[in-house]
Write a structure and sequence with these properties.
heterodimer, A: mainly alpha, Four Helix Bundle (Hemerythrin (Met), subunit A), 7 helices, 79% helix, 0% strand, elongated, B: mainly alpha, Cytochrome C Oxidase, Chain A, 15 helices, globular
């Protein structure tokens, strides 16, 4: 099993512990990420409770078609990521690679769709500032959160796509075996970015339309 | 695969060279993944920033000698105390003990060949360097004047200084502490040597566990609050702007959600260090080990729920004030348990007054003063009177500088022979330790007094009646500066000309001492196996030993 020996890194005594350790480390990191987004969502919640009517008015102007399309894209990418992880566990290399490629493609499609949506938003001047079309003033607050939340999420997704592509190349060139610890860490991170979107979607697209 | 197979521990016959001789090029240091070398990189960087932050405050103390100011404009004065705060908090105190001693000693204490993710560990140092670069840029481009707390609207609308660069530096360095925290948590969970059960962990390892938890969970909230400030300043998003329904108070909540636990990020590791030092130099088992562990974890957890006591006068509801006040009193309970247990550890001990012990005793006294004055401030009516006075300044400096820096120095001296393989000059070290304690008290006791009399913080013009206290305080700061500079000289001397240290000069029981000094790259010459409790110096009661020769059962036993 020379293939496997190459996957063992210092300082781990064996692959099983390494895999467990990488998973655990990723969960600790995600705990940190939860607090990172948690602070943002908490701020949103506080301001929404202060300015309920303004947030409703502002929320009606988000592009629900793009938002919904993106939800579909991202949830599907989580499905393919799960398949990639399962395939890697049973060492089905070809399926792992294919699913990783589809996952990255879906992620990129999300970003493209997001870009189109941003263009629509900017065409309507929905960026807080002097030309902002909506009133009351607190409507700007909603759109401030819109840009920050979607922007940070898009950055996380971009990082995720980058990692998936790097891992794809490493697997493809057999630098590391698919069944090692890496795949698990990548998958956990990807699902996290996906779950953040599941929270952001109702806050930004649905809440103003209830 | 059995738990005894540790492929990265060398076989018996390789009498490994020390980690210091594993390469002498600059690259062998800058690209190292060895936790011991990364610890040294961190130690050097934080020392540089400690002295930069020190110069800033030296200028402030000089300015304060005269009630009408000596040589600074108000704006320059603001920038000096701000950069002092930013540098000392994020570029010295937060990484001080975890990133240096934690990095060096933690894996050895638990019998691991390295931390769980060595490359992440190196990356955390580079993140520190990038954050530091931002801060140096801020320094060179004229500084920042918001105070280290970045409160809006100072930081959003009214500041004409480099707020975004300063916030970016703190943001980036925050991720370096998150990386360290994740690494330590995974290391302690996964890489304990066979026999190193949770309740055999030395208290320093437990303190690293608690502090990592706080770092991982608190730092991201700071990152988000700074990001929101930057978004408001740079993109004009009205997040904390009351004109658009925003609330500056929200920033204070987010900021203190990190920055109060940050005090525990600074003090928990210090508690870990002095627990090791007290046990070793009193030749006693730490009194109440279980309660020590429990109180570390309790401080870590309850520390998350007390941030509101920074905002008693900020417009918080009286109910919230009451709850935060109550919880702040609660967090004093585990702290007091620790102080009493350290005292009980000393009781009937066989105490040696080597430099680490003097520093640790200094910690004990100053931490007690800092903690008790903290109780004054946890009480709402007293805090309303004392808010933003020098009483508060003196209180938190007593914890963060008196406590943490004393413990940092204790740890530096305690592990110095382990890290360098050299002995330091005991006389000068003891002299520096005593000077530091005296200098600290001369600096900060007058601040307690003048704060109580009504001297507000962050002003450089003040009524004449306070001048005597300011002069005393500035004089103390000179003594303190001398005490901080002394180790620089005698430790450098030790490095160059010091006598070679035996492997275990203190006859300590910790696993990190049961290996050569300085340790080989893989930490241990053979896989360690643990079959003893920590701190097995001698049983409760007076020592039978005479003449200072101490019996000790090391925790690790060669298999």
């Amino acid at each position: 099993m020379t293939d496997l020996a190459g996957a063992l890194r210092e300082p781990w005594p064996d692959l099983r512990m390494q895999r467990e350790g990488v998973g655990l480390g990723m969960w600790f990191f995600l705990a940190s990420e939860v607090l990172f987004f948690g602070a943002l969502i908490c701020a949103y919640a506080v301001y929404r409770s202060f300015n309920a009517e303004a947030f409703r008015i502002a929320g009606e102007h988000s592009e629900i078609v793009y938002g919904s399309a993106n939800t579909v894209l991202l949830l599907t990418s989580s499905l393919t990521m799960t398949i990639a992880l399962r395939a890697a566990t049973v060492r089905w290399r070809a399926l792992t690679l294919a699913c990783l490629a589809i996952t990255a493609a879906l992620g990129i499609a999300f970003l493209v769709c997001k870009g189109l949506e941003y263009r629509e938003d900017l065409r309507e001047h929905l960026f807080p500032g002097p030309n902002f079309p909506l009133s009351p003033p607190a409507a700007q607050m909603f759109w401030g959160f819109y840009w920050i939340m979607t922007g940070i999420h898009a950055l996380h997704l971009t990082a995720g796509i980058g990692v998936v592509l790097v891992v794809f190349v490493l697997f493809e060139r057999r630098v590391i075996p698919v069944q090692g610890a890496t795949m698990e860490g990548v998958a956990i991170y990807w699902h996290f970015v996906d779950s953040v979107w599941i929270v952001l979607f109702p806050l930004l697209y649905l809440a103003g339309r209830s | 695969m059995t738990d005894l197979t540790l492929p990265f521990v060398p076989p018996l016959d390789s009498q490994g060279d020390s980690y210091l001789s594993e390469g002498h090029t600059v690259m062998s240091w800058l690209a190292t993944t060895d936790h011991k070398r990364i610890a040294i990189l961190y130690a050097l960087s934080i020392t540089v920033f400690f002295f930069i932050g020190g110069i800033a405050i030296a200028l402030v103390r000089l300015e304060l000698v005269s009630p009408t100011g000596l040589f600074l404009t108000s704006d320059e004065y603001n920038r000096l105390f701000t950069i002092h705060g930013i540098i000392m908090v994020w570029f010295f105190l937060v990484p001080s003990i975890p990133a240096t001693m934690g990095n060096f000693v933690l894996p050895m204490m638990i019998g691991a060949p390295d931390v769980a993710f060595p490359r992440l560990n190196l990356m955390s140092w580079y993140l520190y360097v990038i954050g530091a670069a931002f801060t140096v840029y801020v320094l060179l481009s004229g500084g920042v004047d918001t105070g280290w707390t970045f409160y809006p609207p100072f930081s959003s609308d009214y500041s004409h200084s480099n707020v975004i660069a300063a916030a970016a530096g703190v943001f980036v360095v925050g991720f370096s502490s998150i990386a360290t925290g994740v690494n330590f948590l995974a290391t302690i969970h996964m890489l304990r040597a066979p026999g190193m059960t949770w309740l055999r962990l030395p208290l320093f390892a437990w303190s690293m566990y608690a502090v990592s938890m706080v770092m991982v969970l608190a730092t991201p909230v700071l990152a988000m609050s700074l990001l929101l400030i930057a978004a408001e300043r740079y993109f004009g998003l009205p997040i904390f702007d009351p004109a658009a329904g925003g609330d500056p108070l929200l920033f204070q909540h987010l900021f203190w959600f990190y920055s109060h636990p940050a005090v525990y990020i600074m003090i928990l590791p210090a508690m870990g260090v002095v627990s090791e030092v007290f046990a070793c130099f009193a030749r006693r088992r730490v009194f109440g080990y279980g309660f020590m562990v429990l109180s570390l974890m309790m401080i870590g957890v309850v520390g998350f729920m007390v941030w509101g006591h920074h905002m008693f006068v900020a417009g918080q509801s009286p109910l919230a004030n009451l709850i935060f006040s109550f919880l702040s009193f609660i967090v004093a309970v585990p702290s007091a348990i620790k102080v009493f247990n350290w005292t009980a550890t000393l009781y009937r001990g066989h105490i040696g007054f080597e430099a680490p012990m003097i520093y640790a005793l200094g910690f004990l006294g100053l931490f007690t003063i800092g903690g008790l004055t903290g109780l004054f401030l946890a009480s709402v009516p007293i805090d309303i009177a004392a808010t933003d006075s020098y009483f508060v300044v003196a209180h938190f400096h007593t914890i963060m500088v008196g406590g943490t820096v004393s413990a940092f120095m204790a740890g530096i001296h305690y592990w110095w022979p382990k890290v360098t393989g050299k002995l330091y000059n005991e006389f000068w070290a003891q002299f520096a330790a005593i000077t530091m304690f005296l200098g600290f008290n001369v600096t900060f006791l007058p601040q307690f007094v003048m704060g109580w009399l009504g001297m507000p913080r962050r002003y450089h013009y003040y009524p004449d009646v306070f001048q005597i206290w300011h002069i005393l305080s500035s004089g103390g700061a000179v003594i303190l500066a001398v005490a901080y500079l002394m180790p620089l000289f005698y430790l450098t001397w030790s490095l160059l000309y010091g006598a070679k240290s035996p492997d275990n000069p203190w006859q300590a029981t910790g696993l990190e001492w049961q290996t050569p000094s300085p340790p080989p790259k893989t930490n241990f010459l053979r896989p360690p196996r643990i079959d003893a409790e920590p701190y097995d110096y001698h049983d409760f009661g007076r020592s039978e030993e005479t003449g200072g020769a101490a019996r000790a059962n090391p925790q690790g036993r060669p298999t």
